[in-house]
Amino acid sequence: MRQKLARVLGGVAIGALVFSGAACKADSGDSEAGGGGKAACDLKIGFFGALTGDAAGLGIHMRNGTQLAIEQYNNENKDCQVKLEQYDSQGDPAKAPALAQQAVGDSKIVGIIGPGFSGESEVADPIFDAAGLPTITPSATRPSLSSKGWKVFHRGVGNDTSQGPAAGRYIKDVLKAEKVYVVDDQSAYGAGLADEVKKVIGAPAGYDKIQVKQTNFSAVVTKITSSGATALFFGGYYTEAGLLLKQLKGAGWKGTMIAGDGVNDANFIKVAGQQVAEGTILTCPCAPATKAKGTFPTDYKTKFNVDPGTYADVSFDITKIMLEGIKAGKSSRADLNAFISSYSGTGGATGVTYKFESNGELDPAQVIVWAFKVNAGQVVPEIEIPKA
Predict the structure, then answer these.
(1) 186, 207 Cβ separation under 8 angstroms
(2) What is the spatial distance between Cα 276 and Cα 274, in angstroms, rounded to a whole number?
(3) The model's pTM
(4) 339 in Cβ contact with 352 (< 8 Å)
(5) Is the per-residue pLDDT at 237 higher than 80?
(6) Calpha distance 268→262 (Å, rounded)
(7) Closest CA to 47 of 143, 146, 145, 120
(8) What is the C-alpha separation between 189 and 243, in angstroms, rounded?
(9) How far are the Cα atoms of 149, 217, 270 from residue 246, in angstroms, in the given order?
(10) What is the C-alpha to C-alpha distance for residues 144 and 152, in angstroms, rounded to an integer?
């Protein structure tokens, strides 16, 4: 990948140029991040994530949040529009580099919302960083992403060093499960989250790995049912989680599955079946999008005819950060990145104070983790998991 990256740098150097943008009538807004002048025009924000494929249920809600923010901005700034460019990665790290190269090669794109998943972030973010194209991910939670030295990386939620331990505390303190089996899908996200959970629960009753796109789980089902575990923590995404739980329940297992934000989607219930999914606990380093602040839940449902899903509100708020920078005249990638990195403001949907540390992480004081529960065919909020 290093050789490919070196070859594309010459071709995408234009991406680091200042984009002048046409003069606009709209006045710029003030912000703590600074910057005055006229709003930048004729620019694009890219959304990078899964819009088709097994993980699309998660990606579409995030894209919708970004789309809603841009449409509202354009309605308020009719003479100075911003366009949404979509990059459908299918959540697949193999597809991400080519899409990232495509994005950095478009000189009008000044910011990326995403990538949505940790695996694709690991291979796409070096390309964004080399081109100076700022990113804010609404959902890629692997902790190591912020340790790579990328200057354009920003994360709008807590990472798995907050979500994993919180899930572990829920298992110990709420479920009071004494025997816990742990399974992960070997993805950058799933394995990392499972590791953080194991640190809290101690030695599990058993530990196993599956593969993304695996459909037959008979071997691991046998291990789980014979272990005596009353709880299963799964690190991965909703398709494999649903199939695994369906086969477990079919084998007579009576325990409770606990999983992270990669499973926190209504499609998990469709895959597993309503009766099978009932009672499953799903965590997220986010508050319930359906209970977001302001008019966001109503605006979202009016636009998309569905309630907002996981991270829709986060995507909405972080997109508005980029739009605020554009409104303030930040028309180059470098200027917009500086604006984001020094930003401090409260999201209208999440109520979170977005302030990024030097490594791009959200201020830890703003990180929250919620437990959701599958009840009567819906994923509903249960409790905010207390900090340790």
Answers:
(1) no
(2) 6
(3) 0.86
(4) no
(5) yes
(6) 10
(7) 120
(8) 19
(9) 41, 10, 11
(10) 15
